[in-house]
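Here comes just one.
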Amino acid sequence: MKTGLLLALITLSEATIGVFVKLTDGLIPILTLNFYALAAAAAFLLVAFPLAGNRNDLPLDNLKDTLVVGLLIALQISVFNYAMTLAPIANVVIFWSVAPFFTFILSTVFLDEKPRWTHAAIFAIALAGIVVAKPLSGGHMTGNLVALADGAVYAALVTYMRHEGKNDSDNDIAWSMLVAALVLSPSIFIFGPGEVGAMIPYPALGIDLPVVLWALCLGVVSTGFAYFGISLVLKKIRANTYSLVDVIVSPVVASLLGYLVFGEVPGTGMVVGGALLLGSGFWLTREMSGNAA
């Protein structure tokens, strides 16, 4: 498969997270939904990696990293998907895009990566974007703040993986996904399994579809395929190059899907502030990539 096409498919799959979460229509408790999604993603990856010719042995010599990454994945995906239940897709992906800034801070503190003078200008632009986007105003303040918090959680995951010399192409990610699913497995008993057999009518399509379909799509398409595709594309391009594409393209595609599927129209402040945030995030990621080169 051509690298460009694979990149496009990865971007699209990542952008569908909010769509599938919202299509469940609240019929499955969010933590239970996350458990279903991670279990489906782990199953997909444990089958897909060997079929692609990659070894997928249990990393007995690296169990600590597998467990820590699994815990962070469980937390990051749970917080992100919870934000999707509270705010429009555009809000969530835009405020989540502060992740590179949290990564920069954590990398400076824990990985001893020295800042440059340009970082001050980048942070100023990002701060202006947040001010213009007004996360504390409107009816989605809680969801906006949860999305901002998830940026910090994602940054912790990325920083830890960089510290351990790991990346998304490591086949250990399948086992980390399984750990994440096990971490969230008690939710099915605490919050219940949800109405997995419920049928949701779609008049425009003229059919009823089971809510469990969207839970499986969230796991296989949005999560499992995304990580599998990343593992393949990173064999063709540098991780830094992929990050530069992902940091700005995925949020834009996700926002577009929110408009097309749910008619979510972000306000002017969100559009302008989001553009500043995404642009500054792209610039910061490029700067950090230069440091790592």
User: Anything to note?
Assistant: The first strand starts at residue 199 and ends at 202. The beta strands are 199-202, 207-210.
